[in-house]
Every structure is written in C-alpha cells, then in structure tokens.
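Justification of resources, computational component.

The compute hours requested in this renewal are based largely on the per-chain cost of generating structure records like the one below. Each record pairs the submitted sequence with a full structure-token output. That output is archived, and it is also reused by downstream analysis tasks.
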Amino acid sequence: MHKKISNLAIVTYTLFIILISVLTTVLFYHIFIFETFKDNSESQKTFFEFPLDKVSSSPIKEDNSIIEVMSYGCYYCATNNDAIMEFANQFSQEGNFSVIHLAKKYTGLAAYSPIFATLEEMNIESELRSDIFNAILNENINFKNNDELLNWLKQHNVDTEKYLEVSKSSAVSEKLDYMESIAEFYDITATPAFIINKRYVVYQDRDFPEFTKYMAKLFEQSKQE
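The structure output for this chain reads:
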C-alpha cells in the first residue's frame, strides 16, 4: 500500500514539475519573445516627425520630395500601387516623387532590393513592377531563386545577360547603399512607408484617395516650416 502511494506521489510530483516547466516556458516566450504584454502603442504609430537639425543630415538627395519605401514582397504595396502611381503623376507638378525598395539588413522584405536596383538601373523597373508583384504574391514564383528569376525575366523579354552584367555594376551597388542608408536613417522596417520632404515618415492609416490628400497636406506643411 505504501509503495503504491509512494509511486503515485512520484508520478504526481513529476507531472506537476512538467506542468510548471511548460507554463514557465510559455510565459517566457510571451513576455520576452512575443512581447504579448508589452505596450505596443509606439509600434502602432503611423506618423513620425523628425526635427530640423536631424533632417539636415538626411541621406535623401532630392528636395521637395516624397519617397515611397516599398518591397516586392509587400501585399499592401502591390494593392496600392496603381493609386500611388496616379498620385505620383499628379505630384510631379509640385515636387519629386520616387520609389525605392526597402534595403535594410536583417529585414526579410529587403530580399528583393538587388532585383529592384538592377531593373531600375536598366530603366525598366516601373514597367515591370505590377507583373513582379503578381509573380511573387499571387503566382508564388521564387525570385530568391536565381534560375526562377532569370526564367521569369526571359518570359518578359528582359535581356538576362545584360541583367546579370548590370547587377554586378558599381551603379547598382551604390543604389543599394543609398536605399539602405535611407531605411537606416529613418528606421524603416515595414512597408509601404512614405518619407515626406525628409521631415515626416507616414504609414497608410486611411483609404485612398484620403491618404494621398493627407500626404499632400503634410508636404505643403513641411515647406512652411
């Protein structure tokens, strides 16, 4: 009888220790890894303003500019591309609108930045952008695989020998460095982000066309400061 009780107590104690261990592990992941109980108000902000003294050292070359920081792997970048390009055409009378690819180290969305930089250097990026979004997001073509990428480019009448040559050029390397310097300076890790006249960084928090009106308003505001 005592032996049975003793064995039962050992089993119960062992299960108790296992349970405590599991709960402790789960709690650890939620607190330190997933940050479940952390105040996420800062991470949910969609508007960031940079002081004028910092703006003066911005790596952005163009004055009176709005820059979209996007990624080929970004669903919202793809969804809003037509609306953004329409706004870009309208904005061309006011200033410079340009698009760069997120190129920040250790950020998964930056993986396609060399493709963007190469195609832009070849002056064909904008005309292929919609098709690239569709290939990556809808057709599940792995552009990170060089063979799949080159095959796709051939199907879209891109000179792949020229592509490979340009991809290794100093111009592409400089473009990648420039895009990364912008992402680092403005601490951009998500897309799409919009840098308005070097002063503001905004993330979409409303539908189009209200969002483009909002950016235009901020642009005018930035010129008055």
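The CA atoms of residues 119 and 140 lie 20 Å apart. The first strand starts at residue 47 and ends at 49.
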